[in-house]
Write a structure and sequence with these properties.
Distance between the termini: 50 Å
Helix content: over 70%
Structural class: mainly alpha
Number of strands: 0
Radius of gyration: 18 Å
Number of helices: 9
Order of helices and strands: HHHHHHHHH
Largest sheet: none
């Protein structure tokens, strides 16, 4: 229905990359620096893993796989790259799930979990992802939320811990750049070629963001604080 189409598109924006960056940096500057690092690392690692799986599995969008499948047209332009797994679900679960894990406020946790589940559902409602796309991303991001919690808390309190963590992330990101750009993927049609281009572009964007992180961290630690 038109009302639900509009409502679900509002919810789906919660999984947008730009919103993730805005929330993570707002938390970093205005709430808790360690929590900001936590959300950023979940986001960086989750996105690298998500993009790697997209190129590894190369599963087309639902309407490409089945021409009779109907998706909400307004949602298609933002649905770039391969379908599996869902990037929006990965982003919103990592961001809001991370906030829920960091804070002990029950009301805040309920709101975060409700919003991330509604965003995950919106991806299926709009027809840009299948339940498998969404379910796998939800599971991966949830694991990262719990795995990175003790790691970042320990690294943020150590003199060299953050450098080690950033270095590991850079190495993983560089490995993904090499995989995405040196692998000869089978290409069947313009749609597949565009999806591979999107994955390769994202590999450089992620590596560039992490280089920026590495350059900014010592300045923040030594001078800005």
């Amino acid at each position: 229905t038109p009302f639900l189409d509009t409502l679900m598109q509002i919810f789906t924006y919660l999984g947008d990359e730009i919103l993730f960056i805005v929330i993570a940096l707002a938390v970093f500057w205005c709430v808790d620096k360690r929590e900001g690092y936590y959300l950023l690392f979940i986001g960086f690692f989750g996105t690298i893993l998500n993009q790697f799986l997209k190129l590894l599995c190369r599963i087309p969008r639902p309407w490409v796989r089945d021409p009779e499948f109907t998706a909400v047209e307004a949602a298609k332009p933002a649905a770039t790259g391969y379908s599996f797994p869902s990037g929006h679900t990965q982003n919103v679960t990592g961001t809001l799930g991370g906030i829920a894990r960091w804070h002990k406020n029950t009301a805040l946790r309920i709101i975060c979990v409700a919003l991330l589940l509604l965003t995950a559902f919106s991806r299926m409602y709009l027809g840009v992802h299948t339940p498998l796309d969404v379910g796998v991303s939800l599971g991966i991001a949830a694991v990262l939320v719990f795995v990175f919690y003790p790691i970042v808390r320990r690294a943020a309190g150590s003199k060299h811990g953050m450098y080690l963590l950033i270095g590991i992330m850079l190495a993983i990101s560089l490995a993904f750049v090499l995989y995405a750009n040196l692998t000869q993927f089978p290409v069947e049609g313009e749609e597949a070629l565009e999806n591979i281009r999107e994955g390769r572009k994202n590999s450089f964007s992620l590596f560039g963001a992490l280089l920026g992180f590495l350059a900014a961290y010592p300045i923040e630690r030594r001078y800005i604080r």
